Amino acid sequence: MKKLTIETVLEVYDSVSELPQDVQELMQQAQEAREKAYAPYSSFRVGAAMKLQNGEVVLGNNQENAAYPSGLCAERVAVFYAGATYPGVAINVIALTVRSLNHVVDTPTPPCGSCRQALAEYEVNQGTPMVVYFMGEKGSVVKAASIKDLLPLIFDSTFLQSK
Which top CATH class is 13-149? Predict the structure, then answer.
């Protein structure tokens, strides 16, 4: 029997003020996007800001729908917009933040599984890692050097190819 050991290394910052200045600014943009989220059902707002290789910043926020599966998370709103508007341009850094209208979220909140898979597809295709910073509405911030640190056993196109 073989054993597979998977280790993920994440950096934790006590607050946004400890982040590099450019990441603080990106997180501020994510916070602003978060406040524009359409979340009347969950009251859980999510904002995303993605810095592209060309210097552009793409924003996204969650968009809910009464037919629950029809909504879309902030991360996928942003990554799909980036892919549609700037095809072939790598995503370098992603900042994510959440806020509940029902309670204070002071725990860093990572992307959901569907968003991790969507981001992994883009990371694999661009051939370079996406650095991800995520937080609640306040408190500590977690940094992952790659989507692979958040989804180590990714499913990508290599599984669909004939051998």
Answer: alpha beta
Q: Where are the domains of the chain?
A: 13-149
Extract the tokens encoding 151: 């989804």
* Residue 32 annotated among the catalytic residues of the structure: no
Residue 115 counted as an annotated binding residue: yes
Residue 32 marked in a binding site: no
Provide the token pair at 10: 């994440």
pLDDT one-digit tens code per residue, 48-100:
999 999 999 999 999 999 998 899 999 999 999 999 999 999 999 999 999 99
123 is in an annotated binding site: no
The structure tokens 């029809």 sit at 70
66 in a known ligand binding site: yes
Q: How far is CA 122 from CA 84, 115, 162, in A?
A: 12, 11, 21
* Greatest distance between any 2 Cα atoms in the chain: 51
DSSP state at residue 153 = S
- With a CB cutoff of 8 Å and minimum separation 6, the contacts of 68 are 41
Catalytic residue, chosen from 7, 11, 75, 137, is 75
pTM assigned to the model: 0.95
Strand 131-135 with 91-100, pairing: parallel
